[in-house]
Structure formats: structure tokens, C-alpha cells
Design a protein that fits this description.
The structure is a single chain. By secondary structure, the chain is of the alpha+beta class. The protein folds into two domains: about 70 residues, Arc Repressor Mutant, subunit A; about 70 residues, no CATH class. The protein has a two-stranded antiparallel sheet with strand order 1-2. A two-stranded antiparallel ribbon has the order 3-4. Strand 1 and strand 2 form a beta hairpin. The longest helix is centred in the middle third of the chain and has 17 residues.
């Protein structure tokens, strides 16, 4: 960031930045850095608003992006969380039904969306909670490609032409017409 004077970060601010770069969740980063849980949301926003914090985050991101191995590993780790996550990681099942776990217990990086629907009727009010997780199938597909689980697929040299030979009798014009009518 141009014109931002580099300021020495406090240990809490450095920890905040480190935790923020894990999943870009300022509230959780504030809690992890030791700030109050009650004010973590506002504290996270306040910290992110500081230009020297923004500059430090940008600097760290630039370093991460230059190290493509670290970035690749991070992508794989995120895919692993999605691919191998279970619905029981975010919900509890008991005789009374299904209950969402508290936000402190949930790894929100596996959740695509959460919605709440309230229905009012003569009998009272009912509330439905919907949790949509990211695609487990897509994450497994990415991991399979990354780990070359698809290595049994035929491999062709990129610099050589491929010739496909079809064996059998070619249909004559008479038979071709009768099959298309």
C-alpha cells in the first residue's frame, strides 16, 4: 500500500494476522489472538480497518502467493476438510431431533450457506434451519486429480498425433439408409 508507514506490530496484531490468513474470518482471528469473545466481531473489523494492518496482510499474502507450493498445499488441505467432513461435525443428532452445534465448535470453511425459515400457523411457530455444505463430490474429484488417483486413464504424449483405428465392416450406403429411416 503506497504511503502507509510500516509500523511494528504488537504480538496480538501479528497473531491476528496469522490467524486471519487461515480463513479470512476476522471474528475468529480476533478470538484466537486473545481478544474478548464478546467484542470479537467489532474488534476484528476495527483491526482490519487500520492501514498498517492492511499493509501487513497484503505483504503476507504476497509472500504466500509467491510460494506456490504453500498455496497448493493450502488448497489441498481445504479440499480435504470438505471431502472428509461429516454432517456430525456441524450438527448433533439425538432423540429430540437435530441441533446445530455452536459456532465455536464448527469449522465454517466447509459450509456454503445457512438459512433459517420461520413458519407461522394456528398451532404456533416452527423454524427450519438449513445447512448447505460445499460439494463433497467436487472436493474428492479435485483431490483425486491432485493425487493422481486417475493415473489409470490412458496417457498420451502431447507432441505426437493420436491415431484411432475402428475395426469392423463399414456399412454400405444401402444399409445406412435403411437404419436411418
Amino acid at each position: 500500500m503506497v504511503g502507509v508507514k510500516e509500523k511494528k506490530l504488537t504480538p496480538k496484531e501479528q497473531l491476528f494476522i496469522t490467524r486471519y490468513l487461515v480463513d479470512f474470518n476476522a471474528t475468529q482471528a480476533a478470538v484466537d489472538a486473545g481478544y474478548s469473545k464478546k467484542t470479537a466481531r467489532q474488534t476484528g473489523c476495527d483491526i482490519l480497518a487500520k492501514p498498517y494492518i492492511q499493509a501487513a496482510i497484503k505483504k503476507e499474502i504476497d509472500i504466500i502467493l509467491k510460494d506456490t507450493r504453500a498455496l497448493s498445499l493450502r488448497v489441498v488441505r481445504e479440499c480435504e476438510k470438505i471431502a472428509f467432513g461429516k454432517i456430525s461435525d456441524i450438527m448433533e443428532f439425538d432423540d429430540d431431533g437435530v441441533t446445530l452445534k455452536s459456532s465455536e465448535e464448527i469449522d465454517s470453511s466447509t459450509i456454503e450457506s445457512i438459512s433459517f425459515d420461520k413458519t407461522f400457523s394456528k398451532g404456533g411457530t416452527s423454524e427450519k434451519k438449513r445447512v448447505k455444505l460445499y460439494s463433497k463430490e467436487k472436493a474428492l474429484e479435485i483431490l483425486a486429480k491432485y493425487t493422481t488417483l486417475y493415473s489409470d486413464a490412458p496417457q498420451f504424449p502431447k507432441d505426437q498425433p493420436i491415431t484411432i483405428v475402428v475395426q469392423g465392416v463399414a456399412p454400405d450406403a444401402k444399409n445406412a439408409d435403411s437404419t436411418n429411416s
